[in-house]
Write a structure and sequence with these properties.
Blueprint (H helix, E strand, L loop, with lengths): L11 E8 L6 H22 L2 E8 L2 H4 L7 E10 L2 H10 L1 H4 L9 E4 L7
Antiparallel strand pairs: 1-3, 1-4, 2-3
InterPro entries: Dimeric_a/b-barrel, Sec-metab_biosynth-assoc, YCII
Organism: Hebeloma cylindrosporum
Pfam family, one: YCII
């Protein structure tokens, strides 16, 4: 574990793209476990582990506010000591374990913001 001179762990930011599966039944699974996912996400946000996170949807959610929002996946900015810590969190999320997110398409990359967040 890398530490600073004051023994505080060095935390890095990571971008996560977690698209939903496209198979039938994915939306129903998402909705069935959504509240449990949100509880965990809220805890992660309150602790500073998740800096920002949310649902991805189709452009018509903005261009046609009356159109139903089609949920496509999730995205996050995490702040953690390692990419492994983020990966463990994603793989423990109810959306991952219940088959909402497509594990073959999840992207976790270091993120360097051009502006303070």
């Amino acid at each position: 574990m890398s530490t600073t001179s004051s023994s505080n762990p060095i935390r890095h930011r990571f971008f996560v793209y977690a698209p939903d599966k496209t198979e039938d039944g994915t939306l129903a699974r998402r909705l069935a476990v959504r509240e449990r996912h949100l509880v965990g996400a809220k805890e992660g946000h309150e602790s500073g582990f998740i800096r920002i996170g949310g649902m991805l949807t189709t452009p018509d959610a903005v261009t046609n506010p009356e159109a139903p929002r089609k949920m496509l996946g999730s995205t996050f900015i995490f702040e953690a000591e390692s990419i492994e810590e983020v990966k463990k969190s994603i793989e423990g999320d109810i959306y991952y374990t219940s088959g909402v997110w497509d594990p073959e398409k999840i992207v976790i990359l270091p993120f360097f913001s051009a502006f303070p967040i």
